Amino acid sequence: MKENILNMSEKEFEDLVSEENLPSIYSDDDLIRSIVELIPIVGPIIDGVIARIGTKYKEKRMHMFLILFYKSLKIIENRLDEKEFNEKLKWTETEEFHDMFNSAIDSTIKTRSREKIIMNVMILTNIISVKNNGEFRPEEYIYSLESLSPLEVKVIYIFYNCYKKDNNLDNEENDLQKSNRINAKEKVMEELHIDEQDLIFLLTRIEKSGFLKEITATMFDYEGGAFTINESLNRMMNYISKHPFSDL
Predict the structure, then answer these.
(1) For residues 3 and 71, what is the distance between their CA atoms, to the nearest angstrom?
(2) pTM of the model
(3) Nearest alpha-carbon partner for 229 in 187, 192, 172
(4) How many CB atoms lie within 10 A of CB 123?
(5) What distance in Å separates the CA atoms of residue 146 and residue 101, rounded to the nearest whole number?
(6) Are the beta carbons of 124 and 100 closer than 8 angstroms?
(7) If DSSP codes are grouped into helix, strand and coil, which group holds residue 229?
(8) In terms of Cα–Cα distance, which of 117, 31, 131, 106 is closest to 74?
(9) Distance from C-alpha of 11 to C-alpha of 15, rounded to nearest angstrom
(10) Source organism's superkingdom (predicted)?
(11) Which of 75, 56, 58 is nearest to 17 (CA)?
């Protein structure tokens, strides 16, 4: 996954959502109208959510979600011919879409994690443009992310980057040896300023999401507490890397 929206600074992110080469959006009404024109079926869902949001923090999160959702669709629309785009939009008429969209919105308004909001949008809109023969599980990604706290999302992202940047091709190395060499836990503690006991607590919770797993080994001097990434995390990040925002 190359330098992309998840790695942007706040300033870079603000520049992205106000890019002149994408449709300008001046108010919630204009934004909703634009999205409804693209996907008429989401209008009632969005109206219902906005009517019950309630606080400025939730409104800000929802606005970010809608801006990114709309701009994602516009980029995808520009990359496909009209017939293909309209054909692929049919997934928005399914029960699966309604469930995923509602879960993504609930996840968005309940979190202050910018990363989670961005990932929700990328997962949802990728369904239109990414060929999937069963390799990817976008619905499960949405539900798994919903259960993670902002800090836990940062932890899995640091773990993923540590493993992704590893260039060692020793096929005889086991999971524990690789974990000790990469030392993702140390990187997390250093970047997020948390101690090992707090990190073990977080990793144990994250394990339930399926993105990380504790390593089990029979070595006499291994007392546990080592974690590695799951293939499900690799697949989700591979899926996200196919999103148009990854090119920006």
Answers:
(1) 19
(2) 0.80
(3) 187
(4) 24
(5) 12
(6) yes
(7) strand
(8) 31
(9) 6
(10) Bacteria
(11) 75
* Residues 73, 128 contacting (CB under 8 angstroms): yes
Cα distances (Å, whole numbers) of residue 208 to 86, 107, 196: 37, 17, 19
**Run means of pLDDT, 10 residues per run, the chain, 248 residues:** 50 57 53 77 75 76 87 86 85 86 88 89 89 87 90 93 84 84 93 93 92 80 82 92 79
Cα maximum dimension of the chain: 64
d(CA 203, CA 85): 40
CA distance to 125, 159, 222, 224, per residue, from 180 (Å):
37, 13, 11, 12
CB atoms < 10 A from the CB of 199, how many?
A: 19
* Structure tokens that stand for 21 in this block: 């080469």
- The answer to whether 38 touches 70, Cβ cutoff 8 Å, is yes
The residue length of the chain stands at: 248
Centre a 10 Å sphere on the Cβ of residue 115 and count the other Cβ atoms it contains: 18
The three-class DSSP label of residue 170 is: coil
CA dihedral 236, 77, 15, 41 (to 10 degrees): -80
